Structure formats: C-alpha cells, structure tokens
Predict the 3D structure of the following.
Amino acid sequence: MKFALFIGCNIPVRVPQYELSARTVLARLGIEIEDNPEFKCCGNPIRNIDQNTFLLMAARNLALAEKQGLDLMVLCMCCFGSLKKAAHVMRQLPSIREEMNGLLAKEGLHYSGKFAVKHLLSVLHHDLGIDALKEKCTKPFKTLKMATHYGCHALRPSDVTEFDNPVAPSIFDDLVTATGAKSVEWPLKLECCGAPLLGVNDDLSVELTRKKFADGRRAGGEYLCVACPYCHMQFDKVRQIMVSGQDTAPRMDSIVYPQLLGLAMGLERDALGMTLDIKEEVVAEPPAKPKKTAGRTKASATDVQPQE
C-alpha cells in the first residue's frame, strides 16, 4: 500500500507534530508514502477569489501525483476539500479539464483523473481497516474519553468530498474507538470550529469555539481529537486567549489523531511530537479478598502507560 503524501502549507510550519506523528504511525503500519517536493499550495486561499487560478493550482498537484502513479493521501482537511473540489469540477466539466491540461502541458504534466484523493482518516479506515488498526494498538487506552471533531471541509459538500455521511458521520469515531478511547456523543460535534472567522469577526470566532469547548466538556470529553491543522490551531489559539484573559469557562486541549493512535500503538512520545501530557482516569479494580471489604479505590490521574 503506497501513496503520494500531500502535507500542505500550514502543517510543516504551524502543526509539525501532525506531520511527524503521521509519518511515524504510517511507517509502523506498513503504509508507504512518497514525497514530492514539487507539490505546492492546494489553492484553498483563493478558492473564492479566482476560480481559474484555484483550479490550476489544485490540478497541478493532482497531475503531479498522477505522474507518480499514486493515489494522493492528504493530511489537511482544507487541502483535501480543495483537491476533491477541483477533481470534481474537472470530472463534471471536460472543457475545464482540457483548459487546465493545456496550461499544465507547459510543465509536461497532464491530469486524467485516474488516481484518487484520500484523506488520512479514509486511508486508515477503508484501505487499512479498523480490525487491522486494532491489532496494531498494543497499548490501548482504558478509560480515556475524547470529543471527536470532524471539521467542515471533509464532510461538505458530501457529493464532492465523498468522505462520510455529512449528517451522521462515523469514520472518525470508529478510528478513535480503535485506540481503546471512547468517542463521546456531543451535540456540537459537527459544528464549525470558528477558524474561518478569526481575523474577520474575532468575537464570533472565539464564541463558536468556547461553545464547542463547553459542549465537549459537558458530554464528558477530556480532550478534543482533530485531523485538521486549521481546527487544531483554532482550538489552541482560543484556549490561549481564554487562559490569558482568565476566562474560567470550560476549555479543552486538542490532539491530532495520529498522536492518539501512536500512543495506543506504544510509540514513543518524542516520535509523535507530543508536548501535551495526555492522562486518563484509571479506576482500580476492587480487591478480590476479603469479599466483605471489596470496593473501588479513589480514581487517580496517571500518565497514559501501556496496558498490561
């Protein structure tokens, strides 16, 4: 199993632990990846400004992966949504594909749509499979509760992204559950993280995130689990704003999924870029003897360690 890896612009600079943990986990799972230094921006920043330029930027990346003869695996959900959008447009409108290919020909590139665009989560869920993933989780969590955040760009529009049911998705929940952690149900799970509004309407952006924090906590989530750098950056930014402003409202730390998976696989924290001290509440088993005095001891927070 081999893919061309597309990491996008933000991950290497702003969320390097996502790339590091993804590479570490994929290597342990036996999933081969091939880098391409020619990959550039996916086009998402100008998607709603200049449609033709957006399509050309995305088509160039798709053509480069096609030249490698590999399906494209994407880490960023924004990049994933953009590349899927471009592929969809060129599939539906052959005239647009011909126009893009005319421009790509100047670099000796051509896009025919023979190879797929997949998000990391889809590769793990569909190509590898949940059962195979569980077998690799030799140090599963016992009681950890995660508030799984899907993000917007992978789910909608569903006829374009073809990622999961946009109303009742399950892929990400399944992947979190495979680590032994519980993916809690929370009403705002599918709501926007607020990132698109940061810098445009900061108050509303922060409020959207604060509501997600409160809702995730209310549902019993201990941490947020994400698979998009923009969502992760938003949660981290707003958490810092709340801390600096002495905001006592509920807040949550976030972790990217490959880190969570890597811990369950028994991988070293440094190899996953871990700085967050993930803990889970461990409830001691009641003593077997004497029966009359059997009872549960007080729960204590401990570092996540291999399950014996």
About this structure: The longest helix spans residues 51-68. Confidence is low (pLDDT under 50) at residues 282-286, 293-308.
